[in-house]
Amino acid sequence: MACFSAEVPQLCLSNRGDLVLKRLKISFICSIIFYFFFYLFSLFCFFQHRCVAIFKDKKGSGAPAGFALGSVEGRVAIQYIVAASPRDNFTFKCHRSNGTSNGFQDIYAVNDIKFHPVHGTLATVGSDGRFSFWDKDARTKLKNSEAMEQPISSCAFNHNGQIFAYAVSYDWSKGHEFFNPQKKNYIFLRSCYDDLKPRNR
Question: Could you tell me the pTM of the whole model?
Answer without folding.
Answer: 0.80
